[in-house]
Protein 1
Amino acid sequence: MSEPRELRTSYELFHVECGPGWKGLYIPLLKLCEVYGIRVMQVKEKFGGLRFYTGGYVDPARAMEEIPPPDLCDIIDAAEEASYHTCEECGTSGVERWDDERKPVYKVKTGRSRTSGWIRSLCDTCREALDQRREAEEAKVRARLAAKESTGE
């Protein structure tokens, strides 16, 4: 009989599944989990925000003797909340200005772009660059299809 295969987490298989601009948010979480021996299950972008999932201790024997640090969930929550105001691509964050009701208008907007239904948190510069890349790719595909049609392929 063969040995059972060890199941691997999404993090072990795919590592980080979000843009480089959020490194400042998730790297401290990874280091904290490493210090406490907590298993990281997944790090990804979902609906424009960072998601950081943990799954108990790496060493199962520790699960009975220790409780995870109580502030770990609060720290993860704060990083996830900050991701909505941090560009996933370049890391820009902060308040652009204050509106008439003294509410912040952030440099980063969470939402869809003109070329995609995917919800992402991006600054205007990165969102425009993304849209331009997609439009250029679409134009190339249309040109190839038109060339095939004209040659009868």
Protein 2
Amino acid sequence: MKRAHNEKGYTLFLVVLMIVVFSVISMSLITVTISGAKRSEVRENVTQAGELAEKGLKHLMNQIDFELQQEIEKVPDGMKKSEFIEKLEVVVDKYTCDELNNIINESNETGEYTACVEEHIDKGSDSLPHKVRIQSKGIADGKNKTLISEVEF
């Protein structure tokens, strides 16, 4: 019995097989890398939205503090507790979420935020400090993050 030992084309077959194997591995690595980059971008946007929401919260708190300080400075001899509470309620009511005009709204290159007073918890109370619930929403590239915080004034 004679066997045919024709190995012509075997090298070509090995080369083509190696090209296919390396192509599949390369495509898998590229896919994994691209999906990882997309997930990273989404996480970055969610984080940015959270930071913008915090910025809105601080902005509104500082604005209320600033307006209260201006009201206090108008009375050179000092303000009675009842007067302060009255001024506090007026200032806080200016930023209620009920009306669009009362909302703090800022935009920049990374996104935007809105902040408003969701509820004046101690409204009508004659004790200090007064609790206020503030809602702040950050938006970065379509991702939203809402923070709700209770603050005392």
Protein 3
Amino acid sequence: MFNSTKKKGERFIAPKVKNFIYYKIYKRRFKMKCIMLVDDSDVIRNIVAHTLGMHSYKNVIMARDGLEALEIIKKESGNICMYILDVNMPKMDGLTLLQEIRKIDKTHPIIMLTTETDKEKINKAKDLGATGWIIKPFDSEKFIKVIDMYLRA
């Protein structure tokens, strides 16, 4: 019934649907489930996108660094309902990106997914508007519980 597709620029799109009735149901179910994932590691981006996809979060927009993400966010901000950011990235780090996102979007959750355990950075992220902080490597079940807590509430 569904065929997964991956478009150029690493944007994962809801699967193509052959039957219009299923398309309407699918579109309604996932309409507000677009997640922005920003991490400089290809492996982490793929693992997180795969984990999200296994739990019905099919629409994931990915970026490699803060500058690339900010360009996408400016175009897609009305469609994004959650942000997952790494802290240490080239060009623009996650904390700076967090600050820029909060200028555009003050309401949607922002989860920091990082190897950083420095309390000072955690507190700074919280002060800048981060909703949560998850340490890599992460347990996929706990990760999905956090995502569900914010998006299915």
